């Protein structure tokens, strides 16, 4: 946050949203967290999309593609572009820091250390395979790195790094695996192809099943702590607000200026996923399996935006973009291309480029989720003097 007042506000908000079980050992007495994962986490393995990707997309993109992510203003708060779809760090980075671990290197990076985990997430990735959505071929090249592809990378990495299945299980006993956030792009691509909400809703069972099957695979390999995040309230995202502006009536918006129907859709996905994660938790009682509530944690951030140091008038406006107006977003002029500009103070904005959040917003989200009540149940223990403060 940009000021000490914002830090104080975040601390107060954290206290209000604190999970009652936070002070307990992970997996013990937490309402179904399972028996696994009581020791220190020494590695993180992450699967997902642009919310988590720390450089895989830019490593494999053909020359000339996705050039904007490789250059400033992406990474401006961090000091240089890193392949992250933000001005700086992501939730996965703050989580690693809070666990006393280094940032996760992208799986496709060369000559990188993977001693403390690997990031397999790829910006643009879908949960379901492209063949199941795009009649055999992906509509976009980066959609090819679906969750199944990332699971294969995960297995290949572990099998090449450890001599036996038992050694893999031992490694995973002291690790955290994040299966997502993913699935959002399955819906994004459908909505951007002018599918109706009723049509896109038909994808939900398949998306949720794919995510759960991936989680089962990592649990079967020996994972003791698994987090499965849900989707965001997409009706609050500047990109969607811009896309729907011409066809939306005043009654279509809630009190925060978000689109009710799109948020109801995201909530429906999350309800399906939350039930499936609960069933998964029951099926693997020796492990700690949690659902991360990205939906309500972002709504909490938006509701308390001003006290957290954000500009209350810019919560639905992209820091980096074009077009001005209520959202400062133009689908034909995405952040980084000619004709776009970046705001001078990204920490005052929630949205970085109209699709992804700023480092400041991700910091708050990480605190609310991993240190608060939006991790259901709380399965993480953080080292002393490291964490949300």
| Secondary-structure content class | alpha/beta
Residue-averaged pLDDT: 89
Low-confidence stretches: 1-5, 7-33
Share of residues in helices: 25-40%
Distance between the termini: 12 Å
Q: Which word captures the global form?
A: globular
Strand order in the largest sheet: 2-1-3-4-5-8
The description of the largest β-sheet is:
6 strands, mixed
The number of helical runs is 12
Q: What is the H/E order?
A: HEHHEHHEHHHEHHEHEEHE
Using the CA coordinates, give the radius of gyration.
20 Å
Percentage of residues in DSSP E strands? 5-15%
The number of distinct β-strands equals 8
How are the elements arranged and paired?
Elements: H1 4-16, E1 43-47, H2 56-60, H3 91-98, E2 117-119, H4 147-161, H5 165-173, E3 175-179, H6 184-192, H7 197-201, H8 204-220, E4 225-229, H9 238-244, H10 260-283, E5 288-292, H11 294-303, E6 320-321, E7 341-342, H12 359-370, E8 375-376
Parallel strand pairs: 1-2, 1-3, 3-4, 4-5
Antiparallel strand pairs: 5-8, 6-7
């Amino acid at each position: 946050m940009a000021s000490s007042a914002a830090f104080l506000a975040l601390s107060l908000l954290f206290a209000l949203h604190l999970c009652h079980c936070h002070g307990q050992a992970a997996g013990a007495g937490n309402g179904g967290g399972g028996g696994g994962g009581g020791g220190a986490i020494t590695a993180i393995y992450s699967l997902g999309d642009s919310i988590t990707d720390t450089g895989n997309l830019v490593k494999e993109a053909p020359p000339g593609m996705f050039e904007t992510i490789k250059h400033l203003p992406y990474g401006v708060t961090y000091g240089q572009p890193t392949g992250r779809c933000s001005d700086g760090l992501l939730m996965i980075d703050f989580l690693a820091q809070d666990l006393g671990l280094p940032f996760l290197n992208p799986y496709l990076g060369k000559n990188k250390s993977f001693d403390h985990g690997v990031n397999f997430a790829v910006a643009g990735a879908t949960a379901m395979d492209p063949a199941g959505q795009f009649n055999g071929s992906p509509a976009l090249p980066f959609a090819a790195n679906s969750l199944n592809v990332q699971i294969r990378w995960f297995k290949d990495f572990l099998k090449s790094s450890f001599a036996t299945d038992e050694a893999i299980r031992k490694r995973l006993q002291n690790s955290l695996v994040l299966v997502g956030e993913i699935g959002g792009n399955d819906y994004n691509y459908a909505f951007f192809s002018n599918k109706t909400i009723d049509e896109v809703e038909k994808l939900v069972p398949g998306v949720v099943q794919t995510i759960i099957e991936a989680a089962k695979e990592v649990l079967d390999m020996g994972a003791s702590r698994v987090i499965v995040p849900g989707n965001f309230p997409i009706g609050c995202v500047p990109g969607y607000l811009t896309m729907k502006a011409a066809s939306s009536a005043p009654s279509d918006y809630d009190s925060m200026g978000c689109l009710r129907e799109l948020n109801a859709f995201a909530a429906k996905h999350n309800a399906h996923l939350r039930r499936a994660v609960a069933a998964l938790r029951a099926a693997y009682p020796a492990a700690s399996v949690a659902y991360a509530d990205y939906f309500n944690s972002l709504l909490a951030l938006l509701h308390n935006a001003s006290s957290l140091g954000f500009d209350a008038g810019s919560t639905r406006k992209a820091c980096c973009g074009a077009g001005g107006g209520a959202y400062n977003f133009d689908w034909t002029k995405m952040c980084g291309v000619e004709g776009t500009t970046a705001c001078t103070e990204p920490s005052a904005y929630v949205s970085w480029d109209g699709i992804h959040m700023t480092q400041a917003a991700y910091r708050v989200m990480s605190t609310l989720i991993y240190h608060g009540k939006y991790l259901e149940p709380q399965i993480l223990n953080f080292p002393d003097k490291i964490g949300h403060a």
